[in-house]
Amino acid sequence: MNNIISKRNLMLLSLAGILTVGSLAASASAESAKPEVVSANSVSKGAVAAASFRPDELLKLLQQEKYERIYGQLGAEFKKQFSLKDFKKQVNLNHKNVTSYKLVSHFLINNTSYYAWKDPKGKKTIQALFDRNNKIEGLIFNTMQQYPETDAKRTQTTFELPFQGKWFVYWGGTNELINYHYGAEQQRYAYDLIVVNNGFSYKGDATKNESYFAFGKPILAAAAGKVVKIVNDIQDNKPVGKENTEQIAGNHVIIDHGNGEFSYYAHLQKGSVSVKTGDVVKAGDTLGKCGNSGNSSEPHLHFEVANSAELYTTKSLRVHWKDADDYEQGAYILAP
């Protein structure tokens, strides 16, 4: 597995303010429940123990309390941070009294498999990342947060998709297992969207933005409104995997749709924004190009709707989509 992608996915799963495909508010994750066990980078490609187990065997091994075997399949950096004793303690603390789990999400991209499970009560959760050799690159035990009151509300504005062609929902939905953003009200209903072909989001050199299928794709206004903010002069991150944590949203456009609803289009390509503040746009108008600027670890679009244009104090709103109830993690979306 490419080391950049491996590192990116671990950041994704750390729930510490960095997403696999970017975060709008660096401080937003402070409102999320913090995980008890988080891995770091995996060992080199192919270094897998002879007795390695498959991802679908993880839950059984937990129930059998075979923690040594699980620990043996974790990445080397994880073991530098957590001893076997500490690992057992944390697993016992979080896994105690849970007799079963249900698979919530599973997808494979860039030779990395993501799995998420929850217990029957929907409280205790497990998230795991496995590489192509079933090495565990990330493992989190957590307690799920739920916000049913805001989940039930939708925007008054009806939104269309902000792109053309086929895209993939990396993060999206109404729980933290399928949407990293969910724990923070500033971006609770945000989406991180990439382009995937044949199981990969890139082809060629994974350190170059131009290798990613999403990079340079047109980004469109999702509804009519007035442009109230643009940023267009931030460098795209080079190499891919290096984040700009000082300019979180990177190049971006914010549109006021009235009714206290503002759409955000973040991490755009430098110099690509084709609108200016004060412009009135309609749905489908081109705003710029997909990029990798700001707190983003690969080219993607961060899209959300919120109740203000203030990045750090806004409250995210659940989108009323024109052609779907919602778009959740793992879905391929085909726009006209």
Automatic annotation (TrEMBL):
It comes from the Bacteria. Coiled coil: none annotated. The keyword Signal applies. Residues 1-25 form the signal peptide. The keyword Mitochondrion does not apply. Keywords: Signal. Pfam families: Peptidase_M23. Residues 216-307 form the M23ase beta-sheet core domain. PANTHER family: MUREIN HYDROLASE ACTIVATOR ENVC, PEPTIDASE-RELATED. This is M23ase beta-sheet core domain-containing protein. It comes from Paenibacillus helianthi.
